[in-house]
What we know:
By secondary structure, this protein is of the alpha/beta class. It has a single domain, classed as Vaccinia Virus protein VP39 (Rossmann fold), CATH 3.40.50. The radius of gyration is 14 Å and the shape is globular. Helix content is about 30%, strand content about 20%. The protein has three helices and four strands. Strand 2 (about 25-30), helix 2 and strand 3 (about 50) form a beta-alpha-beta unit.
Amino acid sequence: MNYKILDLFCGAGGFxxxxxxxxEFDALIGLDCDKQALITFExxxxxxxxxxxxxxxxxxxxxxxxxAKKLEINMIIGGPPCQGFYNKGKNLGLKDPxxxxxxxxxx
Length: 107
């Protein structure tokens, strides 16, 4: 079986690149809010489509869902932001909305 990957919070695509090394994984969609990181993602994954935006915004989420259905995505991976958990952000706790972005895997 070949796994077709949607990489949420993809950054430059390191997580999906590691999986693609195993050959049965193909990164087809990457989502990130950093345009420069997406350029690198697309360079690292020549057959992938990069989507730039905030996954909590309805229009971005709908675009990703539409692409995922079209490309028959069967695996979602990602590394949500962890800045709210760093020592500097330790006091932010529940006040930092980035700490809840993992909930967006429920797309």
